Amino acid sequence: MTNNVWKPNTTVASICERDGKYLLVRENASGRIVYNQPAGHLDPGETLVEAVIRETLEETRYRFTPQSLQGIYRFRPDPAKDQTYLRFLFRGEVGERVEGELDQGIIAAEWLSYDEVVAGRAQHRSPMVLQCIEDFNNGPGYPLDIISKVFA
Prior knowledge:
five-stranded mixed beta sheet, alpha+beta, four-stranded antiparallel beta sheet, Nucleoside Triphosphate Pyrophosphohydrolase
């Protein structure tokens, strides 16, 4: 007897706003040019906070300081398949931009206004892109200590 255990993909994403604009990445995903928050998979041995700092740096070359957990999202890109993503969205600030190559598939890090994000929703990687911005605009998120330090 085979026991197949369903395992969702755990991802992290960052969201920050500066002068009325949101930091997004323009990337090539499955042959499409799309926009997304800086995001990626949790690697073995790292905490959620370490992962979002690393992913933001790799995809934008900005240093990211998480300030709160904005939300947790469950996304199934194709309901006919078992693939599911659990996204942990962190709200924070970016600091200096450091030299280096952007992560594979990332074309550019761009600052877009809310109106530009809404107008380009057909180019979003998923519906989470706009939803995350809406949630960011509607509340401050949860303190980072909501994440256990013992079982981080």
